[in-house]
Structures
1.
Amino acid sequence: MSLDWQQLYSQRKRIEKTFGDIWDLPVASRYHRVVSAEGAKGIRLLEVGAGDRSFKSKMEGYWGELEYCSCDIDPTYQHEFNHIDDVTGEYDLICAFEMIEHVTLEDAAHIVTRMFELLAPGGAVALTTPNIYYPPAFMRDVTHITPFCYDELGALLSLAGFEVTSIHRLYHDSLIKKLLRRYLMYPVFRTIGIDFARQIIVVARKPR
């Protein structure tokens, strides 16, 4: 997919109009709880940027048996595929957690386009990335390259042909910190434009 900057801007504004601003996005405690609603037993799952492949066991706890493949350029662990362009097969769900910010915008566009090609009609993709409204989530890692606001990531998926179905902020903490950050400090955070949620997750679907 070649990037058309005017179309990217237009889709970004459409995503913002559809889902609201960052403060309107619902909060979920765990990314895997959001993803669990997108699958069932026997699902064909591809994880891109899979690391230690521990996501497989997490989702088996929700769904039971599944067909899992992983893709990662890091040779530390054994993966079925080492590059998104080498992936074969068809999948019902493709996930990438804290990966998309590690590549350039052009590479990100290529990755989501490739995901679209690999998905079965009606299949879903779930991507997480640091929430730019919580600056330490992005800035603390020197390997981060491209910061994605929720509307920009939604726009990129839309340009690849996906229909964005949900966007959540992700936040999990102790009860005391939750009360402090989500309720007592919330007016201050909103006034200065900083959020307490460390990540966002965008779920999108390939049309049938």
Note: The CA atoms of residues 37 and 125 lie 12 Å apart.
2.
Amino acid sequence: MDASGEERTVATNRRARHDYAVLASVEAGLVLTGTEVKALREGKASLVDGYAEIRDGEAWMLNVHIPEYSQGSWTNHATRRKRKLLLHRQEITRLARHLDERGVTLIPMRLYFRDGRAKVDLAVAKGLRDYDKRQVLRKKQDDREARRAMRAANRTGGRGSSAR
């Protein structure tokens, strides 16, 4: 992006794409302490076990690991503390409606800085069953084999295995 909308990704949750089907996503701001921001600027965070919930009309992100700042002193933060998410009221009510469905959860997908402010991409996601995961992997494998066969056919000039 250009200098006015510069983004720098700190952490991504790649495992979530495998374990969940993403239904919708929303960007939220974060309420952080000073040492948390400094640790994030060092590029340290883990979203693997993280999730978000809506409680009493407020959105909270839980179980996201931001390690202690290396230069911090007694003012350092707790690594897995509950962090408030900054969302508009109508976004919170829309997310709450999604979460009323069975098996739907809020997962942090990406933690990043935009214009110097920490943001998180939240995904409304539904957990995949093991057979769904196998189907997705099988489809990827079939697509890969089809592309490989097409490349091989193009290399031989479309003659296939029988040469003239």
Note: The longest helix spans residues 130-155.
3.
Amino acid sequence: MAEKKHTPPGDLAVNRKAWHDYTVLDRIECGIQLTGTEVKVVRHGEASLAGAYGAVLGGELFVCGMNIPVYEFGNRFNHDPRRNRKLLVHAKEVEELRMKTEAKGLTLIPLKLYIKRGHIKLELGVCRGKALHDKRDSLKQKAQRRDMERGDW
């Protein structure tokens, strides 16, 4: 069996690539509407946030492109792995996020999926895409910080 990548304790899925490709300007915690088989798969740690994004559709907030594989012990009530899932936030927050994404050219990117007091939550980031030179600067700063901590300077 393939070994799973380690995620921080308490986190079910983390979008590590989001921090490399985007500058996170703001974060918001959302509830997520899941079916029974989806909850079982997510709690087992098999969900993937790679390539997922948030969108305001018809006045409601959804996460699109998030992959939750089919539950292997499920029957005819199994779910579609790539369906759009509704995020549970207040109407004011939905309107605020819609205005930010339309006016300023920002994107909604899922950062992590975790459990809080028995409920599955999704941390959604309001992000701006990085240019190639910004990514190089970020990597350079990260390497310098690592060297300073190690004492290699």
Note: The two ends are 41 Å apart (CA to CA).
4.
Amino acid sequence: MRGLIGSVDLVSSIDVARFKEVLGHFATGVVVVTAATPDGPVGFTCQTFGALSLEPTLISFSAVSASHSWPRARDVGVVGVNILSDDQEAIARVFGKSGTDKFAGIGWSPAPNGAPLIDGALAHLEGRIEFVSTQGDHDVVVVAVEYALSHHGVPLVFYRGGFTSLD
């Protein structure tokens, strides 16, 4: 790597497969980001998610810029984030695919500003998109949280290319 922090002049000799293998050693939670569009609900599975600020209440996530669902959610401006529980691997897999009716057979209810909240999720957040920056093949998204709710349970975790639980 060459360049200074903040520089766009970076060079990497790491191939994609090696990069994914190394990053796979970092366990992450699994969320489904959702939005209520005029054409119906949309959503996608995301593992690049986290808290950004307590004051103001901000979260961030990354979405594939060229995906089918993310541009539709971005256009709405309000998103829901559903933190999945350890018994929701099937939901993570459904929302991780393109071209399917992802909400078929999935129970959900609208959050205060309309974003779909998936039944049985460990926690829910809803907020307004404040900032989007394209970095590589992903959009980095900052959301101002306006609604938060949690439940008891164990989170679904993604580690070394597969789903697992903390139990």
Note: The CA atoms of residues 54 and 145 lie 10 Å apart.
